Amino acid sequence: RDRDRDRDRDRNTDRVRDTVGRVSDTDAFRMVLWDKVQIVKRLPSNTRKPDTRWRPEPGLFRSPKIFPAMRKGRPLLTDDWNPSHKFIPRSFRLYKGVEAPKIPVDKDSSNYHEDNLHVLLGKFQFEAKGQFHDKGEPAEKEIFQAAFDLHLVGWLKVRSDFVLGHVQGDTFALSYFRKYLEEKHLSREAGDIDWVRLWNVNTGLQAPLEYKILFCEKDKRRYKNKKVHILAQLEKDRIREFQEKASHKALNEAEETYNA
Description:
Strand order of the largest sheet: 6-3-5-4-7
Order of helices and strands: HEEEHEEHEEH
Largest sheet: 5 strands, mixed
Structural class: alpha+beta
Radius of gyration: 39 Å
Number of strands: 7
Distance between the termini: 132 Å
């Protein structure tokens, strides 16, 4: 009996040892797996330490990112609007022929006088605000004819309330066209110019010029886009009219109060 009791006790002890061993192995596996899960969770929050030998670490004085102003999903960059750039395909390379040799331009102003000043080439951009009748068509015809007669090249954009343009040519022609704009030589049928602004005035360009012809940028918007802009303009005019009426009313009330 004692021998059987000892044998059963040894069997139970071995069984307990096996069970404890299996439980401990499982716990160890779970712990390793949990550690890996924690590492994976921490990976997205970790950032690579910057190499200060390549770029100094700004620390708390990090400047914010610079983003361009967006309009209708497109960035507005500092470049001036140019209608000739939209005809260039962006995703394909353009063939560039053999460049013609450029004639060096004399930069010494003392070598130029009335006889050879027309040799210099120049450019300028302009903007004119005003009221132009018939959607700006008569004004476009007159301004285009004036620039065409002076053998200028570039582009013009004429609408009912503004004129934009970029012209290039010799200095005499540019000076005459600039005088034409500043003195507001437009007929009454075309409209009236309120003010003119010029920028990017430059003289001494090398031939050949950027433009080969003079063309007008037409209004090719769809009717739905025109309708949206027309409604927005009507709303602005209505708000301006209300403001003028309110200011006149307040002025009249102030005068009545002062006289009383």
